Amino acid sequence: MEKIISIKNLNYTYPDSKKPAINNLTVDIYKNEWLSIVGKNGSGKSTLTKLIDGLIDADSGTIEIDGQEINENNIWEVRTKIGIVFQNPDHQFVGATVEDDVAFGLENQGMPREQMVKEVDHALELVGMHDFKKRDPQTLSGGQKQRVAIAGVLATKPRIIIMDESTSMLDPEGRRTVLNLIQNLRQQQDLTIISITHDISETELSQRIVVLSDGQIVRDDIPKNIYNIGTNLSKFGLEEPFSDELISTLRDSLELPEGYLNEEELMKQLWKLRSNM
């Protein structure tokens, strides 16, 4: 697999702190990968995001984005390859209408209006929000607002999208819709997705999970292996996925395969058991 981000021996301590926020961290992220970074508050997740996007400078270590090591001479060029969707969609809106908001980043790039209209329409089509382009963003639901925020990022054609706790304020249906949308976009647009979250239940669609604690990587594995840690996830300030808790309870009275089962696998097993009754 081809690397798109390579981080080596990264260190960062905030000026008003003696404890490192990022402590000698090394990790590679690959093209078209969905990587989830999880950990409790204060584990270093948001700091790592700021370092990757060049919002703060590391004390030591290196970050390469698509083969370029970030430095003061190329940071603006590197940033064009990264888009960030934040936690609260209301904090991201700057336009009076949905289409104005999606066009904001393109206006900053100086794109000609005719081309801008095409790019905005295309981005809204990708997220299923084209019919809402004349609407005031404040009249939309939480899930719709995040889809518009994603469209605004897509319009600038990044290679990497960072989802910074971007589904934490949504209801379960809205969260599921946004996560499924991101999965489809990753596959269709050849994007790399980095999902930052404290809720491990939001990581099921990712291909790999990195667990951070005190600015260090304590686990780096596929989701199934991380979920199989079970109640020991609490050591890192994480809750066991609900489906895993349910499976543990069901195993007291039903014969189920060992290891983690996602919701679809669990449903298949339950239907199989029911048909054998």
UniProtKB/TrEMBL annotation:
Location in the cell: Cell membrane
Q: Which UniProt keywords apply?
A: ATP-binding, Cell membrane, Hydrolase, Membrane, Nucleotide-binding, Translocase, Transport
In Pfam terms, one family for this protein is ABC_tran
- Top enzyme class, one word, equals hydrolase
Q: Which GO terms describe its molecular function?
A: ATP binding; ATP hydrolysis activity; ATPase-coupled transmembrane transporter activity
Q: Which Gene3D superfamilies match?
A: P-loop containing nucleotide triphosphate hydrolases
Record's GO cellular component terms:
ATP-binding cassette (ABC) transporter complex
Per the UniProt entry, the Enzyme Commission number(s) are 3.6.3.27
In this protein, which residues make up the domain named ABC transporter? 5-239
Q: Which top-level group of life is the source organism from?
A: Bacteria
Record flagged with keyword Zinc-finger: no
- Record-linked SUPFAM superfamilies: P-loop containing nucleoside triphosphate hydrolases
Membrane topology, as annotated, equals: Peripheral membrane protein
Q: What InterPro entries does the entry give? A: AAA+_ATPase (IPR003593), ABC_transporter-like_ATP-bd (IPR003439), ABC_transporter-like_CS (IPR017871), ABC_transpr_CbiO/EcfA_su (IPR015856), ECF_ABC_transporter_ATP-bd (IPR050095), EcfA_1 (IPR030947), P-loop_NTPase (IPR027417)
This protein's name: Phosphate-transporting ATPase
The source organism is: Companilactobacillus bobalius
**Source organism phylogeny:** Bacteria, Bacillati, Bacillota, Bacilli, Lactobacillales
